[in-house]
Amino acid sequence: MFNLDMIISDSVTFRPTSMFEPEIKANAETLTCEIKGKKECVIDGAVSLR
Predict the structure, then answer these.
(1) What is the C-alpha end-to-end distance of the chain, expressed in Å?
(2) pLDDT tens digits for 2-47?
């Protein structure tokens, strides 16, 4: 079976879990309050200029 999480951790990030997981868990209540009722959530808006 196709397991996207396994492919990402094995081939893309080389991490078994997200590097943001501890911060997300520690701030789950605040994040929930900030996100609840919103229609859009930008996860990463970074830009690289060269």
Answers:
(1) 40
(2) 888 888 888 888 888 888 889 999 999 998 998 899 887 677 767 6
